[in-house]
Structure of Xylan alpha-(1->2)-glucuronosidase:
Amino acid sequence: MDYSLAWLSYRRLPFYEEKEYFQKLYVQGEDGITSSAVYEICRGAEEILGIRTEIVRLPVSVGNEKSEVKEGIYLFLDSNGPSGGGYRIFEEKGVIWITAAEPEGLLYGSFELIRQVQRERTLKGLELLRIPENPLRMLNHWDNLDGSIERGYSGKSFFFRDNEVLVGKRTEDYARLAASVGINGVVINNVNVTERATKLITCEYAISLKRMGEVFSKYGIRLYLSLNFAAPIELGGLATADPEAMEVREWWQAQMKETFRNIPSLGGFLVKADSEGRPGPFTYDRTQAQGANMLAEAVKPYGGIIIWRCFVYNCTQDWRDQKTDRARSAYDYFMPLDGDFHENVILQIKNGPMDFQVREPVSPLFGALSKTNQILEVQIAQEYTGQQKHVCYLIPQFKEILGFHTRCREEGDTVADIISGRCFSRRNCGMAAVANTGSDSNWTGHDLAAANWYGFGRLAFEPSLSAEDIAREWCECTFGTNAQVVHAVCKILMMSWPAYEKYTSPLGIGWMVNPNNHYGPSVDGYEYDRWGTYHRADHLGIGVERGKAGTGFAQTYLEPNASIYEEAETCPEELLLFFHYIPYTYMLKSGKTLIQHIYDSHFEGVEDVEKIIGLWEGLRELVPGEIFDRVKLRMEHQLESSLEWRDQINSYFYRKSFIADEKGRTIY
């Protein structure tokens, strides 16, 4: 069996009892997306069940008239069916119906039907109604035109090589995988747009990008590009990129007319401005809204949107300054502009105020912004959570983020309510993830890291799914339904994020990684640097004071969250060191001192990794040998890395505090 298509690597099921449904497929409509739905059902039936499905074309006028139907699967558009990419699947008297108001719904319903078969679920009496909660469900790739990937841990780019755009079989395989979990938007290039990548909006790359857009469109995916705010200077030869300058506005309008003419399927652009050296409106004393709106006006005639990242902060902070706080930056820059952005501008907000750490609070912009379109940005690339060398299943973290109560209203105030558009009646909103794919044969380097790609898509489509449900789904689609395999793999996944947190940075402090590559322990790696990512440990305690006596960041939250975070006694302990400087002798609710918690959690984290390895070892004869060996090798590396983390962190704080481990374990 070929496992090169991740969870779409179909296994033959010789004893599946409900093959008869797949003998005939009755289809209404011949558009590109419906054709993809037909292809997916037929491919699934042939590869899983060994059946060649007969396709019967129906006239457009045929409806859901049950007296006339014959056994098989009916795939058709119903104007009264679920819209917005939703679908209904139901079985009745030997017939399976997949209905939707739009072709995208038929495609998602087809993948769901195949997923049911993969998982060996009965189709008799099946009744499913699914409507995606988030309008936009996007992947952001940080791929560079030379073929490298910034923060990529799974090989090279399959979108670019040697300054050329690649469109081939892997493009279609990728589109199939993304669409199968409900992804409907993809940004293919790095948000840090430099050099040749600036030219992606020109005619130089138009033919290849048009072809890529067509491949994506067949699977209900819109193509997006990251653009360079300074393009009027670098491409147009202007002396300025000031968003209020008439020549700049006219240049963008002319360029967008050309770009959308060349790439009709283009959805819009993702923009990183005024952050980490990228150009932006601040250069010209303009606001972020002025910069975004100028671009929004240029793309509006073509139905385009501008996704404007809120990752804007001063990256030249003085480590001696204990009042300036990187965590405040996005709030301070964007909160005063609520309501100033055009309707086709969406603010893309990182899940936390810092940068994809293993634990940090939810960004206070969620709930504070009530008049602005918003997308939640998370990262499945594991930049700070093991870089796909460590297993770290992040869907439980995303569930916590989505479930956070912002207190912007009495009910319906969670992050999930906001980004779905329900809370403030917004239309342009949703979820985006920094992608974790590359040219590796298994797509994600670590075979178990594919659960994050799969899980993000499923969660963005259906946030009510539990992390356990998603893990089980992914496991059964990938490895089959053997109870021992499913139990062990799901347990490994659910243990992995807490384990990683235990052996790395404690109680929300974050960072403590080697600068630049962000991998492995370096407690003071960023402590005296310009990036504003400090832990402030001394011989008495550790933590960043962000209450009123410190940076005041706690007060950016709505009440009662602000008051809860303000006091150490009420602050959730998993975030204690993010919000407060705490003495090592401080007693936690567990009855342990802070320093003892640091020691214990790091020893426990290593023990958890040993348990994870034991669980995987028990599957030696039950999963494909190639996959078993690849994962085992990475887990052995994870154990070595966790030991290094444990010993460096514990030794550091022992030497800072001179307080011994109560259990007398070896600390260096």
Remarks:
- The two ends are 48 Å apart (CA to CA).
- DSSP finds 18 helices and 18 strands in the chain.
- The chain has a mean pLDDT of 96.
